[in-house]
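User: Some background: our group keeps a shared notebook of sequences we're curious about, and every so often someone picks one and asks for a predicted structure to add to the entry. Today it's my turn. The entry only has the sequence so far, pasted here. Could you supply the structure so I can complete it?
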Amino acid sequence: MTISGQSSSALKDDQTPLSEQSSTQTEQDAGVADVTINRNLNEVLPIRNVFASAVAIIRKHALQTSISVMSLVVGVYLWHLATAYKVDLYINFQNVPPPLKVWSAFWTHMGQADFYIHMAVSMQRILTAYLTAAVLGIVIGVLMGRSRIARSVVYPYIEILRPIPAVAWIPLAILMWPTEEGSIVFITLLGALFPIILNTLHGVEQTPEVLVRAAKSLGASRLQIFRHVILPAALPSISAGLAIGMGVSWFSLLAGEIISGQYGIGYFTWDAYSLINFPDIVVGMLVIGCLGTLSTYAVRLAMKPFLAWQKRSR
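Assistant: Of course. Here's the predicted structure to add to the notebook entry:
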């Protein structure tokens, strides 16, 4: 009896750990399964969030694009009605060419090599003048923003020269530059220069002085402060100035090409006016508007990588 009792109790003792081990193993397996599920969910949820965000952005841009396209369609239709019924309510549309005639003239010029030469020459002038104005404008704006002496010396010239229209510069530009090409580029450069200078100056002045002092206290040099503090803080204003300068440069280019030039969209438009070719006048105007819009968009697109930190900070 004693031996059997001892053996039965030993068997009970041996069986109890086995049940506990099996339950513990089951709990561990369940825990591992839960961790695996959570990991899978954590991997899937960000993908779903990114996909949902992408869909929302696409819908937003699609809605904005559709509204813009519909606005243009309505504008062209109103233009058609005004010319078809020869509206004369203070603004006279009797001699304005209808959209179909303008489109026909544009399609005809699309098959002519001279039309592409006019566009290429204008774009080359814009590129030369704008790049020069961008470099000079940013450098001058930064110097004026960081040096009171530089601002006191340069700012009076900017305030005097900035209001002068591009057309008023044409006679003096012809006298100053030995070639017509140089005078046209100079006039175009002036148009883009002043917006870039003033926006750069504004951006540098708006840099928080606390950040500059903090960088100095950490032992940063002037070059490091400019590179890591002042320039990033001023980039939004510089970007706006570059976009505005591009639009104004097209306006100035048109003035230069009208008076002195043999090629270019401005010359094409003025020549159409001299020949009383009204559809070609509108074609030239619309081409200038489209090229100006595309070039401004290209500037904003080029500046986007430098402004990515703005979205992260919001």
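Suggested note for the entry: The radius of gyration is 34 Å. The beta strands are 88-89, 91-92.
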